[in-house]
Amino acid sequence: MMPNSFTDALFQLVRSLEKSEKRHFKLYIKRSSGKEDLKIIQLFDALEKLNEYDEKQLLAKLKGVTKPQLANLKTHLYKQLLSSLRLLKTTENTDLQLSEHLDHARLLYNKGLKIQSLRILEKAKELAKTNQKFNFLAQVISLEKKIETLHITRSTLEKTEDLTHEALEISAHIDRVTRLSNLALLLYRWYVKFGHARNVEDEKDIKAFFKSNIPPAIHTINGFYENLYLYQSYCWYAFIRQDFLMYYRYSEKWMDLFEAHPAMIAVEMGHFIKGMHNLLNAHFDLRNYRKFQGTLRRFETFAKTPVARHHDNFRIHTSIYINVARVNWHLMTGTFKEGLALIPEIEANLKEYALYVDRHRILVFNYKIATLYFGAEQYEKAIDYLQKIINGPLDLRNDLQCYARLMHLMAHYELGNDEIIESLIKSVYRFMAKMKNLTVVEEEMFRFLRSSFHVSPRRLKPELEKFLYKIKHLEKNRFETRAFAYLDVISWVESKVYGKPLAAIIHEKHLKSHRSAVKTHKTAPAIPLHTV
Fold first, then answer.
1. Domains in the chain, number
2. What's the whole-model pTM score?
3. Domain of residue 70, residue span
4. What is the 3-state secondary structure of 306-352?
5. How far apart are alpha carbons 189 and 183 in whole angstroms?
């Protein structure tokens, strides 16, 4: 069996290093270590040449090194790599700079140089305040109070009182940030596990959870981080409940926050690109074609800037989010065949970034790629990608697990695989019922599929028209919109009724919506976004 290249932490770290980081490590270790430590250079070189992590192969390259010695060498190399990276990256990262200031202040204090320690702490306070790093500020103030309490530093009474007031303010701020960030995190995890609210009970539960966890007196919330986590919480709350207008408004507020504090883009790059991703998703859900294009162009331009390309983690996730948006554009405009051209690049990127991409993201890509193939009428290829979801773990996105099976059933229906349709209908129905994912739309879908195989081609069109009539009026029902968001069932049925390809039906809707939007844009006054 081929060894897993991503099971060894040290191997992962070595693989992630850039050329400049490798060069700096070699210089660092040769300058700071003794001759006996140069063995870790040999280990580093051996690991760098491996395509897959294989301990037997590694030991063969390191002559005279036993397995127990290898374990110690790996631990030592891991620590030295992190020390080298810390030294190289300190000036690029605010958190590392603050940690360094705090470490220096503690060292000076332990040496008895209290006044020097306080001077370092003053620098740290200014840096923390500038970048709104209040957690670090709390640590700085804690050490400052300790020094002032235990020693005579000739500080004025007024300064000491200011310090105590500052400590109370920071403590209250951190408490609010903690509560809001906890809420945002828990809502996001709920979505990753279950997807959108499935029914009235889910909606009731999520409303009660949100109400019980949102901090009281929201009007007192201030500062970058408090507002950031507040907007994120409302984003996920709205998205789970499929209130896409609220989701859009709070995604917009999220990005407006960075526009108001541009210096925070470099400090909180991860939150910035996630906000951009959510804003694009909101435009996708609302079919805001023109704004979607504008936001995507803005994101693509940003991706080329030095600040966006500074760190691997953010460069990779920016690339992933842009690829998601490009696929979404083809899904919402019905240009499925054109969208297929993106797949080789996406798959090459996923392979290149395999170390960094989580299973949820891969699950989403497999579903979206399957949808492209389905819309392009390449049903066998769609089935291949859907099988990756169906045969994978069931611990993420119950909604996608269900709709992957439903699309898989529809693909076999399109291929005319009559001999397996009946058993597929039963198994998919059971699975969706077990997952509590059956809506009225799906019930009608199964009813149609069960009956359509016993209907002659001449009588099939009237049956399709009945089916279309039954589901069309559900389009505005919030608990039914999932079926239309994940599988455009209405457009699929319309393609059968009107004898047109699915792509043509969706593309016509896009053109009609675009013409209407242009006309409205020319005649209507601007509507303020932040009304929620």
1. 2
2. 0.75
3. 9-91
4. CCCCCCHHHHHHHHHHHHHHHHHHHHHHCCHHHHHHHHHHHHHHHHH
5. 10
